[in-house]
Write a structure and sequence with these properties.
Length: 153
């Protein structure tokens, strides 16, 4: 029984599987959402991850008016996403945790893998500090909360 993390073959298989599923979703869904967990190689333009996104991840909207210049390689999904301005985004497949359709139904859900390649520099970790629990985002928070529970069917 293995006690270590996933091996290189498992990570590569995970990437290929997610890429294939996401390719099908792009083909069949006009608008959908990706829940991306924090990862050293996740890049969200100059905006980056803010507030609770640094712990909980970010849900990104992919649609006809929010996405442009979309491409994928064996490791990453690349595109420009509309926030307050267009931001260049690089998403490693291993940080994608869920895919939602426009109605908020989960299409796929995966465990995320936090394997970091030595080929690319990881972002420096923040020094440990006191953890502060935050029940609600502050009033000036720039994070958009999506509540799928209150939608009408």
């Amino acid at each position: 029984m293995e006690t270590g993390g996933p091996g290189p073959e498992q990570i590569e298989a995970n990437r290929k599987f997610k890429k294939a599923i996401i390719d099908v979703v792009f083909t069949h869904c006009e608008t959908f959402y990706l829940h991306c967990m924090p990862h050293p190689h996740l890049h969200v333009g100059k905006r980056g991850l803010i507030d609770r996104e640094e712990q909980d991840g970010i849900i990104l909207v992919f649609g006809p008016y929010s996405t442009r210049n979309l491409s994928m390689d064996d490791r990453y999904l690349f595109c420009d996403l509309q926030f307050n301005r267009w931001e260049s985004v690089r998403i490693p497949f291993e940080c994608i945790a869920r895919v939602f359709d426009k109605g908020g139904q989960v299409i796929m859900q995966w465990a995320t893998i936090m394997e970091v390649d030595e080929d690319e520099p990881a972002q420096p970790e923040k020094p440990p500090g006191p953890a502060v629990a935050q029940a609600e985002p502050p009033a000036d928070s720039r994070v958009i909360e999506v509540d799928f529970k209150n939608r009408k069917r």
